[in-house]
Automatic annotation (TrEMBL):
<keyword id="KW-0479">Metal-binding</keyword>
<keyword id="KW-0460">Magnesium</keyword>
<dbReference type="GO" id="GO:0046872">
    <property type="term" value="F:metal ion binding"/>
</dbReference>
<feature type="binding site">
    <location>
        <position position="117"/>
    </location>
    <ligand>
        <name>substrate</name>
    </ligand>
</feature>
<dbReference type="InterPro" id="IPR036704">
    <property type="entry name" value="RraA/RraA-like_sf"/>
</dbReference>
<dbReference type="Pfam" id="PF03737">
    <property type="entry name" value="RraA-like"/>
</dbReference>
<feature type="binding site">
    <location>
        <position position="118"/>
    </location>
    <ligand>
        <name>Mg(2+)</name>
    </ligand>
</feature>
<dbReference type="GO" id="GO:0047443">
    <property type="term" value="F:4-hydroxy-4-methyl-2-oxoglutarate aldolase activity"/>
</dbReference>
<feature type="binding site">
    <location>
        <begin position="95"/>
        <end position="98"/>
    </location>
    <ligand>
        <name>substrate</name>
    </ligand>
</feature>
<dbReference type="InterPro" id="IPR005493">
    <property type="entry name" value="RraA/RraA-like"/>
</dbReference>
<protein>
    <recommendedName>
        <fullName>RraA-like protein</fullName>
    </recommendedName>
</protein>
<dbReference type="GO" id="GO:0008948">
    <property type="term" value="F:oxaloacetate decarboxylase activity"/>
</dbReference>
Length: 217
């Protein structure tokens, strides 16, 4: 099964599937991250791809490793760059120049557990950017990249290199790479059921009778 099949499902539908498949506590959801580009929290943008992970540390940290290559140069075509940053900083960890390089490399977008800047530049490039917030401050004055392609933690979620990221208007989901096929099968089943529920509710049937008929509740 392909990532193109996965792309037809929303992050809400995928989260439902992951919960049904036992992914607790939050069904793969990475909380508090919103779409900032190509528009802010509107439109039908949806990106799907394997995670290319980047770990940021405080600039003063002299003990953590230093990568031999810039993370934007190392990003793989078709990947989604996923960045963790220290939670106490107010600076951005991604700007317009990084989007230019990532887009040229064929990356599908970036997900940031932190802040972004240069909003108009990302939007002019139509490059998908998902982040917690935005800032005027640059990365290099406050934090530095430490490791790439290692497990990272974003809020309550752990993202491993190669895990599948899905991001859209509703939020960001991380799917363990060995669960993609199960998620697609589950989504196909339950989205069809919810389509029947929607038609019944729009036709005037009650929630109670509709759920009893189609969901068995």
């Amino acid at each position: 099964m392909s990532l193109e099949q996965l792309k037809q499902f929303s992050t809400c539908e995928i989260a439902d599937a992951l919960l049904k498949l036992g992914q607790r506590p939050w069904g793969g959801y990475i909380p508090d991250i919103e779409m900032w580009s190509p528009t802010y929290c509107e439109g039908d943008t949806r990106i799907v791809g394997p995670a290319f992970t980047v770990k940021m540390v405080h600039k003063e940290d002299k003990t953590s490793p230093t990568p031999t290559e810039h993370f934007a140069d190392a990003a793989e075509s078709g990947s989604i760059i996923v960045i963790s940053a220290p939670s106490d900083v107010k600076n951005a960890v991604w700007g317009g120049l990084m989007s230019a390089r990532a887009k040229a490399k064929g990356a599908r977008g970036v997900v940031i557990d932190g802040r972004v800047r240069d909003l108009n530049e990302h939007r002019q490039m139509l490059f998908p950017v998902f982040a917690k917030s935005h800032s005027t401050l640059p990365q290099n004055a406050f934090v530095r990249p430490s490791e790439i392609q290692v497990p990272i933690t974003l809020s309550a979620a752990t993202v491993n290199p190669g895990d599948i990221i899905v991001a859209d208007l509703d939020g960001v989901i991380c799917i363990p790479k060995d669960m993609v096929e199960q998620v697609i099968i589950n989504c196909e089943k339950y989205v069809a059921i919810d389509d029947q529920c929607m038609k019944a509710l729009q036709a005037g049937h009650s929630v109670k009778e509709t759920f009893a008929k189609y969901r068995g509740q």
